[in-house]
Amino acid sequence: MTETNNASPTDFIREIIDEDLRTEKHGNRVATRFPPEPNGYIHIGHAKSVCLNFGIASQYGGTCNLRLDDTDPSGESLEYVESIINDIHWLGFDWGDRLFYASNYFDQLYEFALKLIRAGKAYVCSLNADEIREYRGTFTEPGRESPYRNRSVEENLDMFERMRAGEFDDGAHVLRAKIDMASPNIVMRDPVIYRIKRSPHYRTDMKWVIYPMYDFAHCLSDAIENITHSICTLEFENNRPLYDWFVKELIDDSRPQQIEFARLNLSYTVISKRMLIELVQNGHVSGWDDPRMPTVAGMRRRGYTPSAIRNFCASIGVAKNDNLVDISLLEHCVRDDLNEQAPRTMGVLRPLRLVIDNYPEDLVEEFECANHPQNPAMGTRIVPFSRVLYIERDDFLEDPPKKYNRLGPGREVRLRNAYVIRYESMVKDETTGEVTEIHCTYDPETKNAPPSDGRKIKGVIHWISAAHALSAEVRLYDRLFLVPDPAAESGDFKEYLNLESLEILTSCYVEQNLRDVAPGNRYQFERLGYFCADSEDSQPGRPVFNRIVPLRDSWGKIASQGK
Ligand code: ATP
Ligand code: MG
Question: Which ligand 1 atom lies nearest to the CA of residue 48?
Fold first, then answer.
């Protein structure tokens, strides 16, 4: 696995692990896990956590489990599980036979709940949700004890078993841990640990009508799996004492240590499954794998590489403070990676016809072009050249400014991999005034050679021979949102969607060499950017390309800050 930074970057989490290994806090084991809830596709924020957890395990010769934290039946599904598995494999990580499900522990968690009840440390509470909230108090006021707090162990056991047996309606009762209603940490004020919910679970179906709360199941699942370092995001900092309490009360030996780090936020997008689901369900994007989505599936379809995403995650590091990472840093990593990997080709997105008046009518020359200018091992390809070409519409200007090094009246320019041509005349549409055709002459001496008289040719433009052009559709993507931090804006985040984030160009031309391009293949279209054959819509003979990222790197400054 290649990472642009040094192989084992250090950070405060790795420093804690180093110290734990030195003091043999967990013996000499390092066991991490990635614990997604299967209620959506994973996104770039999850990718950061994946890289961190799997990266640490491999660096320390430890293990990393994949555990689906599937304790809330609503919104969870097998489709999501499958997508998560597929996406993490694609990112380049593997868990061998260490695939687990919190739902596999439902029996054990139920036993844990009984154990707490028997120890007088949990009780069935019959307040409704609003009352529980009201009794809980605030940051400045202590909570009040529930009138059901002192139910006897026998009554609690009886009620809890009847909850499980389905005797009560949803919400009629909950099981709560009996901790401390006066704790300054609200999380410790007798949190709910089980609730009644009649909802089929995608794995256990209707076996259960009570489900453990995330806070109960998550930490105990870590302990059951003998996790040494439970790495999670900052919002769980206040929950740490609760997790420690559950584990101390219920499990003797294993004590996972929770370490919190700042979640990744990325500019001009949203990273929250709740918001991403809204975009999908309301049709603002074509699906979870829409190439504009910050999901792993979306980035894959767009053409981002796993190594680019891993390099990005390594370069942003892990911090203790939330911040907003500029999306251009991610684009920079993608560009960096593709610059090395992607073969070159030519494509014209907005074609303008160009005729070389002094080139023989029926001559076709075949030029051998390098697939990568710096890497001869990537070989060459044949590109046909003839009298009528397509060039990019914006490579010609009727009245070009001085610094414009492309084609215009009186100008000469080099055709990439071919000849120098000189402008002669143009044809305009009589009604619209639009330029429809350019006429040039070529200098036969300049085939891959400078002009013999020493005159300088500044510009190089790309082209496609019209008789040999292959039609293609190209999809250009821009930022999904118009503002850097849509989730932080007032009102509905969807108001800030960039309605022009997708532009579809249907009359593009590419080289015939791309006729049977395999979906997912990536190329640099010279002078334009990196493009990927769409995995859903590209067809033999009629390729569809997604623009992964334009060529121009206007973000060098930001990138160098990230290093
Ligand atoms: P979301 O807020 O998008 O719904 P989540 O935290 O609820 O995310 P989970 O499936 O519970 O999603 O997350 C699985 C793991 O990924 C957790 O350990 C979580 O801390 C981590 N994670 C989620 N979002 C980010 C993020 N933006 N940056 C880093 N880690 C994240
Ligand atoms: Mg969550």
Answer: 29
